[in-house]
Structure formats: C-alpha cells, structure tokens
Amino acid sequence: MDAVVLGLEDGWQYVVPGYAITFGLIGIYAVWVVRRGRKLSAELPDDERRFLD
Fold first, then answer.
1. What is the spatial distance between Cα 27 and Cα 43, in angstroms, rounded to a whole number?
2. Domain ranges of the chain
3. Are 52 and 46 in contact (CB under 8 A)?
4. What separation in angstroms does the CA of 50 have from each of 20, 21, 37?
5. What is the pLDDT of residues 1-53, one digit of tens each?
6. What distance in Å separates the CA atoms of residue 2 and residue 8, rounded to the nearest whole number?
7. Maximum distance among all alpha carbons in the chain?
8. What is the pLDDT of residues 28-38, one digit of tens each?
9. Is 39 left (phi over 0), alpha (psi -120 to 50) or beta?
10. 18 in Cβ contact with 12 (< 8 Å)
11. What does DSSP assign to residue 53?
C-alpha cells in the first residue's frame, strides 16, 4: 500500500543503489587491505619474511 502511495511500483529504485553501494564499499576495502599489506610487507627485513620460505 505504501509503495502505491509513493508512486513506486517495485523496489528497484532502492535495491540497485543498495547493491552498488555495498559492492563499491567492499571493493574499496579490498583495495585498501591489499595496499596496506604490500606497504607492511615492504617494511619487513628480508630475514623476517616468513612467506618467502
């Protein structure tokens, strides 16, 4: 009933932006994590880099 009053026949006006915001934030977070990991790994001395074994 409320959707008819608001003139919205379906909820796509909210679903699409909601998904776009969600996936956009996840993408930004993933880039931030990778960049931070690369920065931190560059700061470690070679003898403390366990992932090179």
1. 25
2. 2-52
3. yes
4. 38, 37, 14
5. 555 555 556 788 889 999 999 999 999 999 999 999 999 888 888 887 776 55
6. 8
7. 67
8. 999 999 999 99
9. alpha
10. no
11. -
